[in-house]
Amino acid sequence: MSSLATQISAQLTTTKSLIPSQTWLTAFLATQRPTTPLPALIQSALFRLLASDITTTLEPTSISCFPQDIQNAEMKERRLVGPIVVQILDIEDMSRSRWEQVEAIEAFERGEGTKGREIVRVVASEEGDIPSTGANRSGGTHKLLLQDTRGIKNYGIELKSVQGVGVGMSIGSKMVLRNAIAARGVVLLEPATATIVGGKLEGLHKTWKETRKTQLKAAIEASEQRTH
After folding, report:
1. Are 76 and 39 in contact (CB under 8 A)?
2. Distance between CA atoms of 103 and 72, rounded to whole angstroms?
3. Burial bucket for residue 228 (CB in 10 Å: 0-12, 13-18, 19+)
4. Is 157 helix (H, G, I), strand (E, B) or coil?
């Protein structure tokens, strides 16, 4: 690895816990001008990594990934020292029923949101994302599908509200876990152990947004069939 690549990697690892792979760094530097200052290179590298699939751009290590048996529900509790970098593939507001979530999405599609008990008109952002009313604002508990750099997927649930976590967040956002507890195969999330770094996977976010209502309705129908 070149001296420049080493400096970029060291800075990203120290400040963001992101360890870029040598292959990715080499390809990244090949697209940059030789005269670009180091701080600008670091910022550009960070932006691209946050917009990337970490299973192809970050270097998996023994401490930066979930244990292979993370989903073992027989293990009562274990501490994940980390730092472990994960990307968020799905999120659900556990404080609302699935029907309430569907209704909130449909209200947004009609151009409506809620502010207290008042129905208000809302406008999507240029990217079509839901603003901070009705469909994505909640002080409730969220369940997240997390994926590490090896591609291992596991669920995490908020014990306490984590800043930046909500149904309106970007799918593909990166989160860093430090000293988090995994209990019965589920990662317990709280502000002291989980930090949102940012980022977004454009294609995945678009698909999630477009199919979310359909998936919620399918889950409702499956649940109703099991009760009959």
Report:
1. no
2. 35
3. exposed
4. strand
Given a contact cutoff of 8 angstroms between Cβ atoms, the answer to whether 140 and 97 are in contact is: no
CA atoms within 13 A of residue 214's CA, in its CB half-sphere: 5
The C-alpha angle 115, 137, 82, rounded to 5 degrees, equals 160
Length of the chain: 228
- Measured from the Cβ of residue 151, the count of other Cβ atoms closer than 10 Å reads 13
Instruction: Give the tens place of pLDDT for each residue, 183-217.
Output: 999 999 999 999 999 999 999 999 998 888 888 88
Dist CA 186 CA 93 (whole Å): 16
Cα 19 off chain centre by = 17
Cα angle for residues 21, 24, 30 (degrees, 5° grid): 140
pLDDT, tens digit, for every residue of 107-162? 766 776 544 444 444 444 444 444 433 334 445 789 999 999 999 999 999 999 99
At 180 the pLDDT is 96
**What are the backbone dihedrals phi and psi of residue 69, each rounded to the nearest 5 degrees, phi first?**
-100, 30
CA distance readout (Å), 70 to 45, 112, 146, 184, 219: 30, 41, 12, 9, 25
Q: Strand runs (DSSP E) across 10-131, as ranges?
A: 78-80, 84-93, 112-115, 118-121
Res. 62: pLDDT tops 80: yes
d(CA 126, CA 124): 7
SS3 196: strand
pLDDT given for residue 212 in this prediction: 84
